[in-house]
Amino acid sequence: MGEILYSLLGGIVFISLCFVLIRKTSGLSGKSTAIVMALIVTGLYVPYSILFWKGGDVFAIHIAVYLVTVYVLGIIFSARDASKAGGGKAFHWGPAIIILFFAIVIGVDSVFITLAQKGVSPELANWLLPKAETSEKVSSYFQGTVKHDYYQKEGEYNAYVARMEEQKKRGWIIKKGWINDPVVNQKTVFKLSIHDKNNKPVEQARIEGVFMRPGNVQRDISFIMTEFGNGNYQVPLVMTEPGQWQLVINIVKGDIIHELRAKTRINTVKQSGNINTQQN
Questions:
Q1: What pTM was computed for the model?
Q2: Which of 93, 127, 161 is where one domain is finished?
Q3: DSSP class of 197
Q4: What number of CA atoms fall less than 13 Å from residue 65's CA on the CB side?
Q5: Domain range for 50
Q6: pLDDT score of 145
Q7: How far apart are CA 108 and CA 63, in angstroms?
Q8: C-alpha span between 146 and 120 (Å, rounded)
């Protein structure tokens, strides 16, 4: 499981040793020692995670495993205390089922986090997945969220909704697409034509855009289009990877900002067919 597995196992060993040491030196009961250890683990790991943040999923799995470890140790030593006092059994089915449940959940979550960060190994992918029809390399890990997270902030989201309503009323007619079949690592011209609702060309606009690679913002390709008259704008681009790309275009004309969102697919070899991008 890589780094996550080592940090989880190391934390479990460290917590176990500290638990035994505190219990022997303080003379506390198993339950009291568990409470003390839970406070220590929380007090140490939470500030550490804030200083060296690796993501909410990594934090959740670690704090859960560490606290469950404390819980299990508390059950074990509490059962021993009860056994020595002659008032109980050394272990019970109830706690055993709870421990097994958490162990399964933790194991499954660890696998999910590792796959999200590192992806499926080539050997496992060849065994689990069907053979690809092309020679393209497939990435099975998630490298990050896509940009433009305006929806997370209520004020910006409301402004965005209002702007979209204005765009509908504006009634601009926008056509877009590639002049030739888009092929990876080959220069291809992307074209855009803009006319208002009266079919008059929208000229002297500033058009900026970005082709976004889903899951990998480092691969995004930004561009500025050049005007060629009669509402037509073009830009030559070299798309670096095959597959689907998201497109965001901002058309600025005076005080007007018109946003366009679409998606397109880049081929590994030249293909015939529709080369226009698809509207979102």
A1: 0.46
A2: 127
A3: T
A4: 27
A5: 3-127
A6: 43
A7: 16
A8: 21
